[in-house]
Write a structure and sequence with these properties.
By secondary structure, this protein is an alpha/beta fold. The chain has 2 domains: about 180 residues, FAD/NAD(P)-binding domain (3-Layer(bba) Sandwich); about 160 residues, FAD/NAD(P)-binding domain (3-Layer(bba) Sandwich), CATH 3.50.50. About 25% of the residues lie in helices and about 25% in strands. It has 9 helices and 21 strands. The strands form 6 sheets. Strands 1, 2, 5, 6, 7, 8 and 19 form a 7-stranded mixed β-sheet that branches. The chain has a 5-stranded mixed β-sheet with strand order 15-12-11-10-17, with helices on one face. Helix 1 crosses helix 8. The chain is globular and about 65 Å long.
Length: about 425
């Protein structure tokens, strides 16, 4: 196969890859740059939560990838299967190699369905659902649910948008309330963490919503197996003390009481975020840390061992939430440093402080906007005042408008075109 050579090679044509390419080429249109991305479609995944609640169309989340490849970039539509960092080569599935001066890893995250026993079968049989995989199925099953145990949970791994599983729970509870089914339902929100959210002021708001909906909050609970035949999910305690159901504890929820730090709960509706990890070829190429994420400096996004490699977005070992908003703040830092490196200057931009944002939909027509940094400090954007939003830690209809209408517009028309805002 014919080998190719570029100044900059970007692995991944999702949010991080396209935005990086667009901004790089805006700053230097003469760069010889390639994007390696096998998919012909581009997906706006932040709206999947709304699709799963019947208030957004999945088709509106999908567009043609070719429409967002920046002018001046070469699109290599193939899979990367190996990175040889010493030879500065990316090996493709078709057998060819792509040489680079600088490599940007923006490969995102992949699902590991086999990490929870029975999960793959439960999804295949339609016994369980996930907005991450098929939000239309979530909406279908939610409409069929007429009462009983509704379980919302997430794995004991990093995931895209850590707040998405509880967003689904709040929308599900609001839907059941509107249908007069809330009193006939036991809604369980089971999470492996020790708190509902890492930012204190946001956690306080979410606890109020938990109480308002009568949700059974189970912290320290990681799903380990699903029995699709009998519709039972098993959780394991991952905290030092036994799991506790913190709000409205109902012993009828469990088929077995807590023992050996495990609990089994029968379900009539089950929504999960699947376990998630990086692509195996990244680990096999020796570019990841012990946890399996691309090993970069958390402020400059430059690789800690290979100075000609950078990474951002979900694949990078950054101790903050994996969201598109985080990428929006990472890209300008990465672009500065890549251009400096290409021009033989020191990599000097260490300004990424872990900014991320989680738009937490807490019901139909309301949202909380959690903006924070590596220190879990609440850092609301001053620009929100132009929307007359002065307390973004509280549910707001204006923030719902931001989520449903403004953010998708900004994504397709500004972020993907390299506009900084």
């Amino acid at each position: 196969m014919v080998n190719q050579s570029y100044q900059i090679v970007i692995l991944g044509g999702g949010t991080a890859g396209i935005m990086s390419a667009a901004l790089l080429l805006k700053k230097n249109a003469n760069l010889k740059l390639a994007i390696i991305e096998p998919s012909s479609k581009h997906f706006y995944q932040p709206a999947y939560t709304l699709v799963g609640a019947g208030t957004y169309s999945l088709q509106d989340c999908i567009r043609e990838e070719k429409d967002f490849i920046p002018k001046g970039a070469t699109w290599i539509q193939d899979y990367a299967v190996q990175i040889d960092a010493k030879q500065k080569e990316v090996h493709l599935k078709n057998g060819s190699k792509v040489k680079y001066e600088v490599l940007i890893i923006a490969t995102g995250i992949v699902y590991d369905l086999d990490k929870i026993e029975g999960l793959r079968e439960a999804l295949d049989k339609g016994i369980a659902c996930s907005n991450y995989i098929d939000p239309n199925k979530t909406w279908e099953l939610l409409q069929k649910f007429k009462g009983g145990n509704a379980i919302y949970t997430q794995p004991n791994t990093p995931i895209k948008c850590g707040g998405a599983p509880q967003k689904a729970a709040y929308l599900g509870a609001d839907y059941l309330r509107k249908k007069g089914l809330l009193q006939k339902s036991n809604i369980v929100l089971a999470m492996p963490g020790s708190v509902i959210f890492g930012v204190k002021i946001i956690a306080e708001t979410l606890m109020q919503k938990v109480q308002e909906y009568g949700i059974h909050l189970m912290l320290g609970a990681a799903p380990v197996s699903i029995d699709p035949q009998y519709k039972i999910i098993k959780f394991q305690n991952v905290l030092s003390t036994e799991n506790q159901c913190f709000v409205n504890h109902d012993p009828k929820l469990s088929a077995k009481s807590f023992s050996n730090h495990e609990i089994e709960i029968p379900f009539d509706f089950l929504h999960l975020a699947p376990p998630q990890t990086t692509h195996s070829f990244l680990k096999e190429s020796g570019l990841t840390n012990q946890q399996g994420w691309v090993d970069v400096n958390i402020n400059s996004l430059q690789h800690n061992r290979y100075p000609d490699i950078f990474a951002l977005g979900d694949a990078a070992a950054l101790p903050t939430a994996k969201t598109g908003a985080a990428i929006r703040k990472q890209v300008p830092v990465l672009v500065d440093n890549v251009l400096n490196f290409i021009n033989g200057k020191p990599v000097s931009n260490f300004s990424y402080e872990g900014y991320s944002s989680c738009p937490l939909v807490t019901g139909y027509n309301e949202m909380v906007l959690a903006e924070f940094n590596y220190k879990n400090e609440f850092t609301p954007d001053p620009k929100l005042k132009y929307m007359l939003v002065f307390n973004s830690h509280k549910p707001s209809f204006r923030l719902w408008i931001l989520k449903k209408y403004i953010l998708p517009y900004l994504y397709w028309n500004q972020m993907l075109k390299g506009v900084e805002f």
